[in-house]
Amino acid sequence: MARALRSARVRAALLTLPLVAFIGATFVAPLGAMLIRGVHQPLVADSMPRTLARLEGWDGRSVPDEATFRTLASELRSLRERRVLGAVAARVNRVESGMRGALVRTARKLRRASPASWREATIAADPAWGEARAWRAIRRAGERYTARHYLNALDLRRDAAGAVSAQPPERRIYLSLLGRTLAVAAAITAICLVLGYPLAHLIANARPATSNLLLLLVLVPFWTSLLVRTTSWIVLLQNQGVVNDLLVAVGLIDEEERVALIYNMTGTLIAMTHVLLPFMILPLYAVMRTIPPQYLRAAASLGATWRQAFVRVYWPQTLPGAAAGALLVFILAIGYYITPALVGGRTGQLISNMIAYHMQESLNWGLAAALGGVLLVCVAALYLVYDRLVGIERMRLA
Amino acid sequence: MARSAERRPFGDHLGRGLYLAFCVAVLVFLIAPMLVIVPLSFNAEPYFTFTEGMLRLDADAWSLRWYRGIVADDDWPRALGNSLVIGVAATAIATALGVLAALGLANPAMPGRVPVTALLLSPMVTPLVISAAGMFFFYSDLGLAQTHLGLILAHAALGAPFVVITVTATLAGFDGNLARAAASLGAAPPTVFRRVQLPLIAPGVISGALFAFATSLDEVVTVLFLGGLEQRTIPRKMWSGIREEISPEILAVATILVAFALLLLGTVEWLRRRGGERAAARFRPG
Predict the structure, then answer these.
(1) CATH number of the domain that A198 lies in?
(2) Domain residue spans in chain B?
(3) Chunked in runs of 10, what are the mean pLDDT values of chain A (398 residues)?
């Protein structure tokens, strides 16, 4: 008997193994690679090993010795020949702005020089080398493992002495962006609950034929391409769009005072609410369908007003559905990228858009990875809450 | 009061009227985008709003020019080809592995069901930008970036959770004794699967596969990060169309995609009903 049970366990586990391995290799491992990318940056360390070795014994305040200058010049020359100088200079520039220019200029000016004093020649090529901060930047950028990106993602920095402190106010952008993302997600969740609750109730209590039809209407947007829906919101909401035309035609606003409904936070809110509303309605409906109408009748016959009956009898029973829908909407909302990117304009961007920006435009992959790590922690925490409150096994689709 | 509360939990006639009006408004909000995009794709003018001619139902104001534009353009058919190749291959992988995993998860003896389920469903809740960024780093190192194979693997991983969910839901609705009876009559496990379990869970499998296919067909973030010019899919092309220069051609493509979505939804609904009461109870959300 015990053996039969064990073999059943092994058989069940073996059936899941191929997908576990597949998801592990194609999905979990890449996430791991990203998290590592946020702390591991070997480029500068691998490119300038001898200069960095010489800087190990350096006091960090004085200008380094002649031998260090000579080593730097020779390594810069070789980086230039191997055409990797640009990438290395960009990396150092993130630690100390202005270093890209200093490195590229110096490498160019010293490419064929063999001066008596490398120190003088290098400082002549770019005066930055006469100051300790340039060398500190090289040393900092040469750290193979760094907490810099994560600190940066949390609006923290390490000052010259190595102590962690808050960024100056004008450079604190990521935490407030994360805060804004969470606030937008919360707002969308609340709007979805308010809009979805009565409709879910109607669907759950209608006659079967009506109920089926209404459910189909909720499912149509669910199955329609996200890009299609975003496109139609652009068409509907833009300045010369259908909604503004309608408002002008009805006389609610004048031709000159067309409302900016899109390419700002309003656009993000409207389009995202539309996309996420079915995720709220479906779990609510599923729970409401199981609540017997007798309960409300009993409450009414005992003298409750409909408000009392709702607050004390109906609403508590729908809480599981509301919690499941709200958590799902919130989890999906904080990671949204496509909709804000297309309809959010400048003010309606969320944290995912910042990650994409650093991935594709600023090419600061370390920071993108660190921001991704921060967002991933938020999502993972909510996923655990979902499991505790709802149960991951009960996640269902329409 | 008692009687109205009995029949109508949300109050008296006025309350009932407001409640219905509110629900209708929400429904309009839900389907308005679909209602607007379809007629506007037949606009004879390059505008995104109803021209007076369209409102007068003037035949000249309506045209198929944007649809002809799609077909005449080389890029859209090529994008369709890419979408289909990647979608079909990714769906095949996701469905095969997802059905096996669901069979394992549905077995009461399955050890560590909750963590394994959490792992298998995680691609569904992870923000796409994070997944795509990680895949970009990882697949680039393996030489899979800017290849069809890379996107197929990515989309298979994103689609598999849908197969797991739908098939697990279908399996939960059927009688394990059927498989045991077949086994006791001498059928080998593969035979039990093919002759007994598969026919029973077929509606769930097909629905899951359709979900996975729809996911791949709509996915743009991994294509943005991982795909090159050779991997331009329909959504990728729509993305640049919307960002750069939105033309009514996009609306024509969108209309075709809405029709396709209705087809998918219709199929899944039909399967749900055909699957009978057995699967239906579980297949509905909840």
Answers:
(1) 1.10.3720.10
(2) 2-65, 73-283
(3) 84 94 96 92 90 88 90 91 90 89 90 86 90 90 88 85 81 90 97 96 93 91 89 89 87 85 93 95 93 86 86 91 94 94 91 94 92 95 91 70
Write the DSSP symbol of residue B56.
T
Shortest Cα distance, chain A CAs vs residue B229, angstroms: 16
Residues 141-160, chain A: which have Cβ within 8 Å of B?
none
Q: Does A315 touch chain B (CB under 8 A)?
A: no
Q: Indicate if A226 and A318 belong to the same structural domain.
A: yes
What is the chain B residue with the closest CA to A195?
B26
Q: Quote the CA–CA distance of A360 and B40 in Å, as a whole number.
A: 34
Q: Are residues A251 and A331 in the same domain?
A: yes
In angstroms, the Cα distances linking B75 to A163, B34, B41, B83 are 55, 25, 19, 12
pTM value is: 0.87
For residue A238, give the H/E element and its range. none
- DSSP β-bridge partners for residue A158: A164
- Per the structure, the count of domains in chain A is 2
Determine the structural domain holding residue A137 and report its residue range. Answer: 43-144
Answer whether A28 sits within 8 Å of B119, measured CB to CB.
yes
* pLDDT tens figures, A143-160: 888 888 999 899 998 776
**Subunit contact B47:A387, Cβ cutoff 8 A:** no
Same domain, A224 and A340: yes
Distances (CA, A) of B96 to A28, A31, B162: 20, 24, 12
Q: What is the CATH number of domain B73-283?
A: 1.10.3720.10
Q: Do residue A372 and residue B133 have CB atoms under 8 angstroms apart?
A: yes
One domain for residues A181 and A110? no
Interface probe for A, chosen from B29, B120, B130 (most Cβ of A below 10 Å), is B130
Residue A388 makes CB contacts below 8 A (sequence gap 6+) with none
Structural element, H or E, at residue A65: none
CA dihedral A299→A300→A305→A308, nearest 10 degrees, is 10
Whole-angstrom distance, CA of residue A295 vs CA of residue A66:
88
What is the ipTM metric for this complex? 0.87
